[in-house]
Amino acid sequence: MFFKTAEESFELLDRQRDGYSTEPLVPSLPTQRIYDYVLVAPRVEDDTDQKAQRQRGFIQKLEEKNITVKRIDHEDKVFFGIRAPNEMFKNYKYLLKVSDSCNWCGDVRGSVTQATRIRIVHFILHQTFINTGENLEELMKKGVFETMFCLHEELLRRESGFVLSVAGLVYQTAGSSRCSWCCSFPLWTCLFQHQPSNVSHLFDNEGTVAFAMCMAIWATLFLELWKRHRARHVSKWKVYDWCEEEEELILEIVNDPNCTPKQFSHSYLRSTLVLILVTVMLMLIIGLAHALVVFRVVAAPLMSEGSWEFIRDHANTVAVMLGAVLHYVTIQIMTRVNRWVSLKLCDIEKTNSFAATERNFTVKMFTFQFFTLFSSLFYVAFFLGRINGHPGNYVRIAGWRLEECHPSGCLTDLFIQMAVIMLLKQTLNNIFEFIVPWLKSCVKRKTAKKLERKCGHCYRKTCRDEHGSIEPCDVCKLRHWLSNYHLAHTDAFSLFNEFLEMVVQFSFTTIFVAAFPLAPLLALINNIFEIRLDAIKMVRLERRLVPRKTNDIGVWTKVLEAIGVLAVIANGLVIGVSSDFIPRLVYHYRYGPCANGSTSTHCMQGYINDTLSTAFVRDQAVRTDFTPNQMITDGFNVTQCSYRDYRSAADYTLTSQFWLVLAVRFAFVILFEHVVVVCKFIAAWFVPNNPIQVKNDRLHDKLARLKEELREMKRSKSTDV
Length: 721
Prior knowledge:
Blueprint: H1 6-18, E1 37-42, H2 50-64, E2 68-74, E3 77-83, H3 86-98, H4 106-109, H5 114-126, H6 136-141, E4 147-149, H7 154-158, E5 179-180, E6 194-195, H8 207-237, H9 244-255, H10 268-304, H11 309-313, H12 315-349, H13 354-382, E7 389-390, E8 393-394, E9 396-397, E10 400-401, H14 410-455, E11 462-464, E12 470-472, H15 474-485, H16 492-510, H17 519-541, H18 556-578, H19 581-591, H20 607-610, E13 612-616, H21 620-623, E14 632-633, E15 636-637, E16 640-644, H22 656-686, H23 692-720
Antiparallel strand pairs: 1-3, 1-4, 2-3, 5-6, 7-8, 9-10, 11-12, 13-16, 14-15
Helix pairs in contact: 3-9, 8-18, 8-22, 10-12, 10-13, 12-13, 12-14, 13-18, 14-15, 14-17, 16-18, 18-22
């Protein structure tokens, strides 16, 4: 192979290694200079127009910073290719070297990668102000510029076809023994019937405790293994001591050597205002959860009086499922509201750096989303069926009685609620996230096809720019720019949404896993598909994301750790308070046949009857809970009915068995949480955050850096002499 100059050969090698050159290493292809960013503006024919003047003013400000701007007109659009000078990146590397944030990272030791170039130019574009004091963001809002984007690499796009694997699912159904109930629920039906199966026994059994403990410990191991995985990449990329705040200062100096830092500030008035607004927002979200409760309270009795027999017989279950669907719709609406409110709250706080703003926004957005997602679930898990009163003294809303638990147990309602929300959220979100950009790409691809036919062998039509570098003709550049322009828009929220989706999924698979053991399986199946769909979407259907350099996932790690602790508390309460595990345990050892030394019968014989209390219909207060038709069944009058509770038949006061079960419930919760927390601490201690190899590599890097600093000092002394 032959090259014109040694400098050209090394430049091409560096560009291919760092992702700049997208062409094969052949001697016939000249070195091509790429553009870091593209601005798109509407074409304005009148030079005296305000938009045209502001466009020229912004481009002039860029050119004053020695930034090359290539203008190409196309129909009613104007495309500006932005290319930053090499001197700017040399200054960036030097400031990194003398700073504390990354004085031994890849950008200091090697060439500046395309990702770094894009990140620097992105910052400079947003920090360039015209004479009116407007920056690019404000100019885009006023229509002076339409959009901006960084370019995908053509080679990456050509080789990014993925094969989407279709996973076969083997669905295993498990049945449970038939169980008989004295009286069906809710109380007012008062009809004797058999439940086909005890649905809750599928997940409310002796293995639930062990499963919940394993999931809580797994959450800790997952985070610890993730930290080890992160440490390997941080060591490989040499960004162990990276600091985003300090890099922002470096970028400020690169953009303007005479800049002044943004001072830290704190206002108790602003903090108080933010706290009040956050509280109001959380109360609004909790109020929406109450609205869902009211919907189910009203819907269940109305459907029980409907004309369809199936809906009448399963009115409560249908109401719970409809409530879950309505909850999903509420989640989709509130996600947009939460984002807008979080942004406004961050504007009020006036942080001094983008990294601090991002952290505050993440915490607020996740808090709002968490309450939006889990307020209704917490009600179903811990309050449903426990605050509705007792015969003769039921709690009512506008005349409607509060809903009761599913006949098979309170966990069944939570299981249904989580299953519907998780299935809808994962399935519909993946469909819309992929289909919408794909349809837009199909519609807009025709314009780029026309230019591709017009272009032909455009690489043979080259020109030499003012720096002496070779670049393709305008038609070829415009073809590439248009292909990126027609992709779906991306912004800072694009990656944030992916983070939020994964953290919410982590919450579903840990917090109420005792009530919904299928959550980890559904999450696994979803991620198998989503990892490929997201890759195709990001590489082929969406504009290139602005790269970010960092050494961790920021505040998300703290959020995941908080979820792990909350999962221990929530699962302990679900098992101890919501499930029938403790009542069965108490009956087995205190009230059942085995408690009296009997070995001829099953230890749980008579458990169902033991959990039921009796209500006499002759009591006037109880009679008001029924209609005349409900008090007559198959030609005979109903004199008494059973309901699920531990109450005296005489005056409906709580029995001693209730207090014993309650005491054991809370004792179990405390014991469960302490045991699991100790296991989590042991697991976190047992798995180090940093592998030994990473520690040794960092030690060698520090030693090599110190030796190099010493050699540079000696060279400078010899030069002075």
